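Budget justification note: compute hours in this period were largely spent on complex prediction jobs such as the one shown. Inputs:
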Amino acid sequence: MSVVSQTISCMECGARIDDSPSTASERRVPCPSCGSTVRVYHLNVRGTITMHGSLGLKARHGQSGRPFVDAKMGDDLFRKTGKWNKLERRIDYVKRWYYEKIVDSETGQVIRDVSEPLDKHRGRGSAKRTERQ
Ligand SMILES: [Zn+2]
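Corresponding output:
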């Protein structure tokens, strides 16, 4: 994969932020416009995708194209147990495939491991939303 360009913006207000994706969340500088530390990373890449880091990723062909991969990795608070789990979610719009894996970060136990066509996933999406809140 070759990264063509990389931009970072504030998830709340969309302001462009000069920051590094490798900056730990607790060390991130709050957005100058709204104070949020939630970031969106935009990567423009050529070739296949490999994922690094811990946050959301949308990959596009060029500046104007629709995202062909929408992915999220990182810690995810599971409300049912009150524990933080490792979440990895990837939606591939080219292959129309949905992939999600949640692992208990303490025990390494796989809590959820989904790999299915995107259409099928969307057909029953409401149950999942309730579960994750
Ligand atoms: Zn902001």
